[in-house]
Amino acid sequence: MLVLLAGIFVVHIATVIMLFVSTIANVWMVGSSSYARISIGLWLLCNKTCTQLPVSSQDEASLKAVQAFMILSIIFSVVALVLFIIQLFTLEKGKRFYVTGAVMLVCWMCILIAVSIYTARFTSTVAYSTNPHHGYCFILAWICFCFSFIIGILYLVLRKK
Predict the structure, then answer these.
(1) Distance between CA atoms of residues 88 and 40, nearest Å
(2) 120 three-state secondary structure
């Protein structure tokens, strides 16, 4: 049981770190231009230097929603980690980690909403570039989506023995 709890704890910490990296780094979409590599994140457009991400007025609300949901997912993931540690030492034997699992599933839902909006609105083109493709932050966000779902379900099923 201790090994299972330690494994879940390690995967949860890895998920939090990957969420931080995927939200902060500016490599959600990558493309090539004639003189440099172009990368686009949630915050900046980086060519040789990074500048504010140019967004049309119709896409601005979508980008702000993606930013907000990614930040919320980080917050909920950290809260779930703190709740897990607190419940680990305060729950009686035989009790389940319902609250921790519920918070982690809310984190999962925030990631799902953010990455789905980004996929629908922003992955079709990279401005001034050829051969656009997804960057590692986009892939990390999807990995965090999977991990947070698995961890949330494990917390709901897991019983402190």
Answers:
(1) 40
(2) helix
Average model confidence (pLDDT) across the chain: 88
Phi, psi at 131, each rounded to 5°:
55, 55
Q: What is the pLDDT of residue 110?
A: 97
> What is the value of pTM for the model shown?
0.89
Q: Identify the DSSP state of 56.
A: -
**Among 8, 15, 9, 13, which Cα is nearest to 144's?**
15
Is the sign of the CA dihedral 67, 43, 41, 132 positive or negative? positive
- Inter-CA distances, 39 with 27, 28, 110, Å: 5, 7, 24
Every domain of the chain and the residues it spans: 1-8+17-26+57-126+137-160
Chain centroid to Cα 25, Å, comes to 12
Alpha helices in the chain (DSSP H): 2-24, 57-90, 98-122, 136-157
pLDDT of residue 96: 82
Look-up: residue for tokens 């922003």?
A: 122
3-class secondary-structure state, position 47: coil
pLDDT of 127 strictly over 70: no
CA distance linking residue 28 with residue 40, whole number of Å: 6
